[in-house]
Design a protein that fits this description.
Largest interface: A-B, 56 and 56 residues
Number of strands of chain A: 12
Number of helices of chain A: 12
Oligomer: homodimer
Order of helices and strands of chain A: HHHHEHEHEHEEHEHEHEHEEHEE
Strand order of the largest sheet of chain A: 2-1-3-4-5-11
CATH topology of the largest domain in chain A: Rossmann fold
Strand content of chain A: 5-15%
Radius of gyration of chain A: 25 Å
Structural class of chain A: alpha/beta
Amino acid sequence: MTVTLADVAARAQVSPATVSRVLNGNYPVAASTRERVLKAVDELDYVLNGPASALAAATSDLVGILVNDIADPFFGIMASAIQGEIGGPGGRAGGERLGVVCNTGGSPERELTYLTLLQRQRAAAVVLTGGAIENASHKAAMDTKLRKLGDAGTRVVLCGRPPAPETGAVALTFDNRGGGQELTEHLIGLGHRRLGYIAGPQERTTTRHRLEGHRAALAAHGIEEDPRWTVHGRYDRRSGYEATLELLRRDPSLTAVVAANDSVALGACAALRDSGLRIPDDVSVAGFDDLPFSIDVVPALTTVRLPLTEAGARAGRIAMGREEAPPGGIAAVRGELMVRGSAAAPRE
Amino acid sequence: MTVTLADVAARAQVSPATVSRVLNGNYPVAASTRERVLKAVDELDYVLNGPASALAAATSDLVGILVNDIADPFFGIMASAIQGEIGGPGGRAGGERLGVVCNTGGSPERELTYLTLLQRQRAAAVVLTGGAIENASHKAAMDTKLRKLGDAGTRVVLCGRPPAPETGAVALTFDNRGGGQELTEHLIGLGHRRLGYIAGPQERTTTRHRLEGHRAALAAHGIEEDPRWTVHGRYDRRSGYEATLELLRRDPSLTAVVAANDSVALGACAALRDSGLRIPDDVSVAGFDDLPFSIDVVPALTTVRLPLTEAGARAGRIAMGREEAPPGGIAAVRGELMVRGSAAAPRE
DNA sequence: CTGTACATAGAAAGCGCTTGCTGTGACGTT
DNA sequence: AACGTCACAGCAAGCGCTTTCTATGTACAG
């Protein structure tokens, strides 16, 4: 029914071994033989049996990409960049690799489940994106899993995630703390003294780091933070809208709103506008990430640019063994402050 | 080094066959035995070897999801919904399935490559989302591939794609044509007579169908279309911005702009605003898809709601064999006109 | 008390591929 | 002229699992 290696071998009048070697190209095969084999492959329309090959070779050509929320461009962009680096040559077969993105939905269980599934498939590499969940037992379980994956020969890369020492995973970490600090310092430099902050979900490293940066900036300038100025929410637009309304309710004298990310910032803008406030005249707004739409909105968003595409591509290359891991297995990726129209000096 | 089925069997004092049966749960095993096996699995921290199992059983637990652009929420939402339905029970193992999303980037070659890779992995199912590319030779190649996949036992589902008869694939098709027509008719009903249209990329079925619907509406109302009123672009915000500027340049008397999708519509809004035009007072804007942010922008977008989540979930269920395919293997999914603030009667 | 049916476990034959090792001619060397 | 050397090609042993078929023990009926 299905065409196998043996069929191709028979047709090309060679042994299965030879066919395998032609397909994998890691053993000398005479040009004429190779040609004959390729012709047979073509004529028979042969498709390699992945599982069989993975079993025999003890590695597969699967590369897993874990994301928190596939519907969020933040992850979409990274996933896209990572996938872009997968599929080129570099592996045993010099062949295509199947880059697969797995959507955890931010759930710790699913994160672990996917890792097991990937482990089961003997994935060639795994890239984990986005912040981690701060929960001791989950972190321990993850670390164990990552170490096992690594031990089994799967290359593990963390992209935009805090490092996990002891697991052998390479980490490309976003400097969320530094970015957050720089952003808030910019606002303070503009003259703002009463700044609302819309944070992401609790228990996520990204949320905590950005918030810490924000607070460090306040502290550095002797601004005492009012607890009412911080609201937690999700990393989406709607959440930004609601949180802003809440912030305004708590303290209408706020002159700036710093959002956990650009989507949230967009929601914040909408809420401010709906409340009859002008941006940046009445209230300044700042985001984080610099997603593509951020330069496009009105007014353009002051934000911190995270090199999502570059970091993703690099993570992909490292995962493919095409680029060396940074010294120590850890590299911090800095954000860049993008000064645009949504933030200006407060009135008078 | 790695723990195998045999190790578990030895530890549990049973045969490998029994362990396999416990794990797959499709053969009677005495409760006490099962317990012993599971205990051994746990103690040894055993992880099934996917490739080996796929080889022996001639099926794998991989489910492929093909998307055009993973960074676009349109696809992200569908992918998310599809994946949500994967992983539950329903398969031979009652076990987890690995839902993997593959990003084609709209490239015909990559589409085909991914399909081959999935075929190679003996995927359990494949869901293709988004419009197809209108190119005879590519379509033929795709159809051949899809038929082969189907013949090999892979369930193939098209979600938001035109049907591919003869391939045996189940199709859930969005009624882009009907939606486009209804939308434009709404605008005409409001009194608009000069409508610009920002279409998506040429050669995509989605683009063509929406545009056809738009034109059908114009024709139905005896409006002769000016060729200057249509501009083609990509399905993103920036493209909408540029196309709108172009439209305005060509004919400043336009009273409405219909966009290929919501992202494009957002870009259009920005361009209009930057041109000093108010929405909807000076120019009405309409989108398509009703992505989450569309209700949230200012003014809220009049658009056609496509039940992305529902359709994706249904496609996922069909792919998993958890829901029956629609009669004839084809179901049309209708869009729903969402009347909101971005479109109003033209002035005077 | 024997015979038949049933429930459960094991033996063993692959699934389709990779790869270490073993030929086997064709060359080049002394 | 005899003998390494090399470049290829083939043999065959698995990789770790599933599954058919068979064996065994137990229960129940006659």
